[in-house]
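[Q] Does anyone have a clean structure-token version of this?
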Amino acid sequence: MSYLHVDVFAPHAYAGNSLPVFLDGAGLNADQMQAITRELRHFEAIFLEAEADAGTYRARVFDLVEELPFAGHPIIGAAAALHETAERKEDQQWTFNLADRSVTVVTQRTGSGYFGMLDQGPAQVFGEMAASDEIAAAFGLNFADLDPTLPLAIISTGLRYLIVPVRPQVLARARIRADISGLLAAMGAQFAVLFDRAACEIRHWNNDGILEDIATGSAAGTIGAYCLRYCGARSGEAFTLNQGRFAGRPSELIVAPHGTPDNINSVKVGGEVAIVGHGAIVAPPHA
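[A] Here you go.
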């Protein structure tokens, strides 16, 4: 069972967020996919199965803990991997059918790899949250570290993120020392992302704080929506979001929200993808 190893949101290999892409995951069940993901130890893995329509694939994404209904960097990486193996090298469009919706990615060849732009679809704003000592402390911060000019908000383009804006230079001190899943669930959020508007930079961890993500496409989509709603971003104008430098893998995510502050009808997230190598699983997990 072969796979491609790619680095997403990176202009060259050994940067950005790494990913194994299984181009033919047909015949594997969820337990097998989860076992393979844990074995390879990337943040996430994606398993594809070709469907009847050309350029259309069923996609399942797993992190080290569970299957995810949506994730940005695996979908962009999968599109680049498909382009790498395609006979035609001009610009391509791919459709990925997830558990509850379909998304499209447009890819183009670059000098050293590929560029993929994912349309995450409309954003949902679930509400604003009051800043509090409890929320600041969950990230090892003080209340004064939170940006007083911006609200906390829960936004989703597929996963519900609590967006926590912080003052400049604060990201370097942030840490998660105890699991925040319960705190987030009580607010109606699944994950959290810290956002420094001045640096246009984010940090995101697994909820237990053990692993820091390097480049989080789903979080970037919510930041795009947040910036359109609260920060004066203009519809259709792309900006660069930075992530990963604190984990030693600086990454650049291109984000373009579309719509109005009250009706965010689309957020596109893209970046460069480098092809790192090929691999094969010769001993699949038992079904």
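[Q] Thanks! Anything notable?
[A] The first helix runs from residue 30 to 40.
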